[in-house]
Design brief:
Layout lengths: L14 H8 L3 H10 L6 E2 L5 E2 L2 H16 L4 H10 L1 H31 L1
Antiparallel strand pairs: 1-2
Helix pairs in contact: 4-5
């Protein structure tokens, strides 16, 4: 999943925007905040969550473990605690491989339409 966080050069993102980026709902994000202490969006007046790019990166890691790889929440939290850097690097590599695969599938499709 390619995230273009520089598109609008925004400093903060709402919970709805972050949920949309990952195809999940806001309730899931609020739940993940309780399960993963690494996800700590800033809260403004009236407890309105404001996610930074760093917060979104942490959500991306959790999303990869839980939604993409199908890990249970406890297992994902334990893995992040034990090897945060390794989990982040693996997430980056998997995202890159997914992007390459999508590009290759597109090329394959375009070649098939030429025949």
């Amino acid at each position: 999943m390619a995230l273009n966080l520089n598109k609008d050069l925004k400093r903060f993102f709402s919970i709805a925007e972050v949920a949309e980026m990952f195809g999940i709902n806001a309730t899931t994000l609020r739940f993940w905040e309780k399960q993963f202490p690494q996800i700590t969006p800033k809260k403004s007046g009236r407890n309105v969550r404001q996610y930074t790019k760093d917060d979104i990166e942490r959500v991306r890691v959790v999303h990869n473990l839980v939604k993409v790889r199908g890990m249970k929440l406890d297992a994902a939290a334990s893995l992040i605690r034990r090897n945060k850097d390794g989990v982040e690097k693996t997430t980056d590599i998997l995202d890159t491989l997914r992007e390459i695969r999508a590009e290759l599938m597109d090329i394959k499709h375009n070649l098939a339409t030429l025949e």
